[in-house]
Design a protein that fits this description.
With 506 residues, the protein is of the alpha/beta class. The chain has 2 domains: 1-65 and 83-115 and 196-296 and 444-506, FAD/NAD(P)-binding domain (3-Layer(bba) Sandwich); 151-186 and 297-360 and 389-439, 2-Layer Sandwich (Cholesterol Oxidase, domain 2), CATH 3.30.410.40. It is built from 11 helices and 23 strands. It has helices spanning 17-26, 104-108, 120-130, 156-167, 199-204, 256-266, 272-277, 390-407, 410-413, 429-439, 489-504; strands at residues 7-13, 34-37, 131-133, 146-148, 183-186, 191-192, 195-196, 213-216, 220-227, 230-238, 241-253, 269-270, 284-285, 291-293, 297-305, 319-323, 334-339, 353-360, 367-370, 381-383, 417-421, 441-442, 472-474. Strands 1, 2, 8, 9, 10, 11 and 23 form a 7-stranded mixed sheet that branches. Strands 5, 15, 16, 17, 18, 21 and 22 form a 7-stranded antiparallel sheet that branches. β9 and β10 form a beta hairpin. It is globular, with a radius of gyration of 22 Å. The protein starts with 6 loop residues before the first strand and ends with a helix. The structure holds flavin-adenine dinucleotide. Flavin-adenine dinucleotide binds at residues 13-19, 37-40, 83-86, 90-92, 94-98, 220-221, 254-257, 259, 263, 444-445, 476-477, 487-490, 492. Pfam families: GMC_oxred_C, GMC_oxred_N.
């Protein structure tokens, strides 16, 4: 980018899943000048392992992950790693590549928070716009930038788990990624010709030659600048210097559930008590910023197998199921995911085996994100307060029992499997609940810190405008008022697609 250029129509802050969509969509109009700021590196400087689907767990130890941890959780007494991506593509460059809409019931409930126009039917055109679904399933997109589909040949151990699920009475779904079904099936993945497709690959790369799109990497947004109540500029650090870029029309925050809330707080926008505690002036009191932080916790059952598990070729988690723990629910509240490696566990090392992940899809527990100062390089204080609500534990217990029934099925018998962790001596609710609360991990789906709605607790309105201010929107995972009942990335793509439409309106 020409370093003398400092004035733009739109500034997009954060080049992750949502930011790549917005930068690409907004710059489709050649008369609109768009600046994208990303704290991490360009695609070519990300680790090679980004492209290799099976290697994604190794990315957690690289600079492509911000490396956040929660505070010690009341449930376990220990902090929990909460990875998020850094670099063009953001979390889509380090995630596990599952591409699935939440079940439709999860969006319909967004209206409970006052959000208007975000029911599943409203979002459907945006889900479709983002994707070219190779399955050709009904309700799926046919010409979007992302090419998504299930593994052509899932790992045999995962197919055996799928057969076990069906054998034990679960529905075999046709398209578990489409938001309309429950049951078990291979899930769509962001893998094209054996390589990961990030948001930067799908959206940004084809737009990079546009003269009206300006991308600055290794640029950390420090704070937002205002003229009265109008956001007019972003101050950011790059090349060891502080820069200011101005936005004639709007600034849109796409720094993710952690980064966007941090940036609002650093700009004096948030709960007055939190800002005062961080010794900061309150520019605009907005009690919901950083509140409502929630995520999917996941407990793992780890199995040893006598028969060798084939070498993983995909993302490890190629098949999953969405289930209701109680028949009177209006949609699924539990996910089981079959994983073709034995994840690290607290009981014993396993050389050859697999894992069944169990995660409550509609957790009730809510926590918070805070900052300690206006230092843009200081780590946030993250407390999702996992398992604060007993209902979330009960959902996991139901999931563990379901997983064990599948593991006992004839379909898995020929693999000679044995449950290593927690182990079959852990049986009663209390012991299983204690296990889940002590040894769970984050499913890495933090959301909710700038929740959308029309009530006092909401940060953005139904058009994603920060309440009480002008020229400023948030359009990423942070605006999700309650987490969808599946992995979150597909939902963030759809939110960003819709945000682009809202912002392009004259
Ligand atoms: C390890 C892992 C595994 C996951 N697995 C899956 C999965 O398999 N399927 C799924 O659906 N979801 C998965 N997710 C979640 C999913 O990837 C996210 O929900 C989604 O990518 C969030 O998109 P976003 O645009 O809100 O934020 P992000 O994609 O995280 O983008 C935020 C961007 O903003 C940048 N940024 C932050 N602060 C600043 C600042 N101050 N200045 C400039 N830039 C800034 C960041 O560097 C980042 O690039 C996973 C996430 C992780 C981390």
């Amino acid at each position: 980018m020409d370093p003398r250029k400092t004035a733009f129509d739109f500034i997009v802050v954060g080049g992750g899943t949502a930011g790549c969509v917005l930068a690409a969509r907004l710059s489709e109009d050649p008369d609109i000048q768009v600046l994208l700021l990303e704290a991490g590196t360009s695609t070519s400087r990300l680790p090679d392992a980004v492209a290799n689907p099976s290697a994604w767990p190794s990315l957690m130890a690289t600079a492509a992950n911000w490396g956040d941890k929660t505070v010690a959780q009341a449930a376990s007494g220990a902090p929990v790693p909460l990875p998020r991506g850094r670099g063009l593509g953001g979390s889509s460059a380090i995630n596990a590549m599952v591409f699935a809409r939440g079940h439709r019931s999860s969006y319909d409930s967004w209206g409970d928070h006052g959000a208007k126009g975000w029911a599943f039917e409203d979002l459907l055109p945006y889900f479709q716009r983002s994707e070219t679904a190779t399955s050709g399933a009904p309700s799926r997109g046919t010409d979007g930038p992302l090419t998504v589909g299930p593994m052509a040949e899932p790992n045999d151990i995962l197919l055996a788990c799928l057969a076990g699920a069906v054998e034990t009475g679960h529905r075999r779904a046709l398209d578990i990624s489409g938001g309309l079904e429950e049951g078990f099936a291979p899930v769509d993945l962001n893998i094209v010709a054996g390589r990961r497709q990030t948001a930067a690959d799908a959206y940004l790369a084809p737009a990079l030659d546009r003269p009206n799109l300006h991308v600055v990497t290794e640029a950390v947004a420090h704070r937002l600048l205002f003229s009265g109540d109008r956001c007019t500029a972003v101050e950011y650090g790059a090349d060891g210097r502080t820069h200011t870029a101005t936005a004639e029309r709007e600034v849109v925050l796409t720094a993710g559930a952690i980064g966007s809330a941090q940036l609002l707080l650093r700009s004096g926008i948030g709960p007055a008590s939190d800002l005062e505690q961080a010794r900061m002036d309150v520019f605009h009191s907005l009690p919901g910023v950083g509140r409502n932080l929630h995520d999917h916790p996941r407990a793992n059952l780890v199995y040893r197998a006598r028969r060798p598990v084939p070498t993983p070729q995909g993302n490890h988690g190629e098949i999953l199921g969405l289930l209701r723990t109680m028949p009177d629910l209006d949609g699924p509240d539990l996910q089981l995911i079959f994983i073709d490696i034995p994840l690290p566990n607290p009981v014993a090392p396993v050389d050859n085996g697999f894992t069944i992940g169990v995660s409550p899809m509609r957790p009730l527990s809510r926590g918070s994100l805070r900052i300690t100062s206006d230092d843009p390089y200081a780590a946030p204080v993250l407390d999702p307060d996992y398992f604060a609500k007993e209902q979330d534990v009960r959902t996991v217990l139901s999931g563990i029992r379901t997983a064990r029934r599948i593991a006992r099925s004839a379909s898995l018998a020929e693999w000679g499997i044995e449950e290593v962790s927690p182990g079959l001596d852990v049986v009663d609710d209390q012991s299983l609940g204690d296990f889940a609360k002590k040894y769970f991990g984050s499913y890495c789906h933090p959301v909710g810190t700038c929740a959308m709605g029309e009530d006092e607790a909401s940060v953005v309105d139904s058009e994603l405008r920060v309440r009480g201010l002008r020229g400023l929107r948030v359009a990423d995972g942070s605006v999700i008022p309650s987490i969808p009942s599946n992995n979150t990335n597909a939902t963030v793509y759809a939110i960003a697609e819709r945000a682009a439409d809202l912002m392009r309106r004259p």
